[in-house]
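Hi everyone,

Forwarding the result from last night's run.
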Amino acid sequence: AFDYEEWVVSHYDWKDDSVILVTEGNMHLRLTINNVNAANTTALHVEKLYQKQLADLNLLCNTYYEHNNSSRQTTKVFEQVKANISAISNDQQRIAELESIVNYANNNVMVRLKDCCSSLTEREYKIILYTYAGFTPLAVCLFVDTDSLNLPKIKYKIRNKIKLSEIEDKSDIIAKLSS
């Protein structure tokens, strides 16, 4: 694995708080230390999410293997999938981590929505979060316990609440929720 800290220390220019990247043809690109720290932060967030997802996948594989070729195989795997979905959607730590990543990648959209759209319910807020995180509509339905026919109606109400708010970039947020 690439060691960011070691690389930064060896390429750090103490005069102006930047890192010099030497590229082909002696062209130089400078990154501020903040950008390198941001890359580290993003890498850590992604690593945490993958570790949790791999742990969940590992558990499903173990359940599948333990009940392989048995009459209970389908039931056990289904029960485990259902339990994992419930655990993910109710795990406040995972939700907070996901919110942090979405905020980091999208100009603090979730923070801005909380500040400017106080009329959003917790459920609506989670729908926005899961949508921004890239989950499919069906996954969002499972996480917030709604029917797939109701999700477009809920998103319509969310978009109307956002339209009435004073949030910046509301057209971009509405567009994201329309897809």
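The CA atoms of residues 24 and 30 lie 14 Å apart.

Cheers,
N.
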